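Incident log, entry 3
Record: DUF2229 domain-containing protein (366 residues)
Problem: checksum mismatch between cached and fresh output.
Input:
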Amino acid sequence: MKATFPHLAHLDVVLEVLYPALGIEIVPPPPITKKTIEIGVKLAPQNACFPMKVTLGNFIEGIEKGADTIFMAGGVGPCRFGYYGQIQRIIIEDLGYNVNFILIDSPRYGWKNFFSSLKTMVGGKWSISRIHRAVRLAWNVLRYVEDLEKTSRLVRWKLKDPSQLDRLIEKSLKEVKNISSVAQLEGIRENTLLEISQLNTLKKNEPIKIGIVGEVYIAQEFRVNFNIEKLLGNMGVLVDNSVSTAEYVLNFFPFTRSREKEEAWKLAKPFLKRFVGGEGIDTVGSTIRYAQKSFDGVIHLYPFTCMPEAVAKSIVAGVGREYNIPILHLAIDEHAGEAGMITRVEAFVDVLEMRRQQKVREASCS
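Fresh output:
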């Protein structure tokens, strides 16, 4: 079995630890490029969600590298994510590729199917202790990767040379892919965080603070959202991303939901009482949370034609007016261009800076 997977932020680091620990040979797809997107756009239905097109491109490129198995998460509900795997499997079969496409549905909708998929995944080598060790290691890697991303957002805005941070992160992630124990991971964590803390910083005033909300794939996948977190950080903006891969994994299982997600759902309830699929409720609740934490603005990232985020967008506009917080909506698909997005983001940051200066002048006059 040679398995490939779709990219999602740094999830490849986690899977390159998990799969070998389960005895699965891994064939990582190449990094997402213009070619990846072109493959997906050519093969997928025209009105399909952009993430489906990109992940389809990942699968095709993984197959061409020698993969014979694909693992893909499934789902149900108003979000069209539940259709991704089914449609992608049909497209790949129609192309004549001989691959085993395994859909892993959430155990929320039945433990029997989940365990059946898991057994297929490990090739019948059913060992609870082995699976537990592998999953525990992978979970710790995922939390470390997200801690690293969070640390990057917290320090990038004040660094003298942000490229040094990029090199440290790249080196750390490369080292993590070769670990086989939590102890090795902790050693890498300690060294990396120490090196980051020693980077040269500039003396700056209180930074503009921007929160990111939206659909999980577009908000997390930096190769698709034009690395918006790095763009903002290099502009001297302190960024926070409400979307988390670890939280998404937790929500995949029953009885597990993070404190942040519970809080976001409670905050959203006066504005959105029904589940609309995807991250719709989270988008509304997280926008309110950023307003309550005195963030200067919010950027809403979502795929063009995404139904849950289209619902959230109309509600978030009202939230912005009620809480007096500016919101920039960015819909991303295969037609989005980096230059246009950079222009819009830079203009948004300029507006936030002018608003802050206006507040300072008003405070000094009163």
